Request: fold
Amino acid sequence: AQSVTQLDSHVSVSEGTPVLLRCNYSSSYSPSLFWYVQHPNKGLQLLLKYTSAATLVKGINGFEAEFKKSETSFHLTKPSAHMSDAAEYFCVVSDTDSWGKLQFGAGTQVVVTP
Amino acid sequence: NAGVMQNPRHLVRRRGQEARLRCSPMKGHSHVYWYRQLPEEGLKFMVYLQKENIIDESGMPKERFSAEFPKEGPSILRIQQVVRGDSAAYFCASSPSPSGGAIEQFFGPGTRLTVL
Reply:
């Protein structure tokens, strides 16, 4: 079975500085990996996904993530944080053993300070 | 194309009452998934349905919870005799075909259930 671990429950950054959200996964097979963002009292929005194509994946709003098989990591980055990036971020793995059940990490709350 | 719709957005119930949560998938989507998010936690899978069929209910509590996705109308998640521990945000997602690999699940805004 697959699982994901988000290494930071809270991250605080200053506006204009880089953002790094760390995610490690465990999987028996080549996984599909996703990052979702959840703004307060809103649903989840897909930021980007990795499905065994290019290891560097570009998403919306300037986010990108790199799949590193040797490190079993899929960290999310953004060069310059914006106030609107304040939200909760979830790293998600798709269970390739079955129909693609999504397994969510516990989430990382991002705070952006002026 | 409207996104996934859920109603009500907020639901308050007293212990022992029933809660009915509705989910209308995106147009053209026949696969629906329900998730529960407890405070300070990530989403946990509950059940996966296609029209008139339950495909995977491995995440559903064995008692009091049921789900359906009829041929016509929205998917319903039903919680009987609610308890305080059922207080959570319940999210519905949909996809045009079985989720997995490149197939994305599109999420609704959620229903926040509070049990008094």
